[in-house]
Amino acid sequence: MAGNWKMNLDHQQAAHLVQKLAWSLQDAKHDFDAVEVAVLPPFTDLRSVQTLIDGDKLKLKFGAQDLSQHEAGAYTGEISGAMLAKLGCSYVAVGHSERREYHGETDALVNAKLVAAFRHGLTPILCIGEGLEVRKAATHVDHCTAQLEAALTDLTAEQVATIVIAYEPVWAIGTGEVATPEDAQEVCAAVRDKLAQLYSQSLADGVRVLYGGSVKAANVAGIMAQEDVDGALVGGASIDPAEFASIARYRD
Ligand code: PEP
Question: Where, if anywhere, are coiled coils annotated (predicted)?
Fold first, then answer.
């Protein structure tokens, strides 16, 4: 279960959230090996989150919401994979629909960012998903598998085996509009089939495929019951620690 905080919470609020989340999960005796829990705070919060997680030996993982495709140098405002790795990030989201929509990220740029993440040992959470027009035209499966294939260009099978893929229908992000569990399953299964076709069935079976889009404690169990859904990428609901802890505890 990964929580994408988006552009919310300063470094002090971030520390409070992580503490509350960790306490809720510890009280519930959460099995972190069975259901991994990760937070993706804004860049400015990462140092505080790292200090808390390392200092208190919390079992939460953390990562960033984006990275630069470049290594270093004259790229004002950018953050490199090396910087994230140095801070102890495990994960980095790549190709979130808000980056694609508001920052013009293309499939080629998403691919370059995946390459940069792997250069620094970060596990990318690759986001794919269709907009409302594509969904209405019923071409969403082809759209998502094409995004996937383009993003994975020239990556090795060893790299792809470790990637996390998040299917996030854009029309369901931050809208309160949730895809049905069957909608989530349809594309997550197609993602796995595409991986099997491009690489191997065993690789496809091992890759973690998440669903994202208005996931809450009230709807997570139905989504997680789907065969090809291994987890959730949670936006809005992840900045409420009690709600996010309940999402992580969907098996209760
Ligand atoms: C997201 O930002 O990845 C997301 C899924 O947002 P929300 O849960 O708010 O729809």
Answer: none
**Sequence-separated contacts (24+) of 226-230 with Cβ below 8 Å:** 226/181, 226/182, 226/184, 226/185, 226/188, 227/185, 227/189, 228/185, 228/188, 228/189, 228/191, 228/192, 229/181, 229/184, 229/185, 229/188
**Residue 168: active-site member:** yes
Mean pLDDT of 18-38: 97
CA dist 104 and 102 (Å) reads 6
Read off the pLDDT of residues 30-62 as tens digits, 9 standing for 90 and up: 999 999 999 999 999 999 999 999 999 999 999
- The answer, yes or no, to whether any atom of ligand 1 lies below 6 A from the CB of 173, is yes
**pLDDT tens figures, 101-126:** 999 999 999 999 999 999 999 999 99
Cα radius of gyration rounded to whole Å, the chain: 17
Whether the per-residue pLDDT at 178 is higher than 80: the answer is no
- Distance from residue 174's CA to the centre of ligand 1 (Å): 5
9, 92, 128, 215, best to mutate for ligand 1 pocket (most atoms within 8 Å of CB): 215
Cα dihedral 190, 196, 197, 199 sign: positive
pTM: 0.97
What ipTM does this complex have? Answer: 0.98
Give 199-230 pLDDT, tens digit per residue.
999 999 999 999 999 999 999 999 999 999 99
The answer to whether 233 and 5 have CB atoms below 8 angstroms apart is no
- Domains in the chain, start-ordered, CATH in brackets? 2-248 (3.20.20.70)
CA 153 from centroid of its chain's CA atoms? 19
* Annotated binding residue 55: no
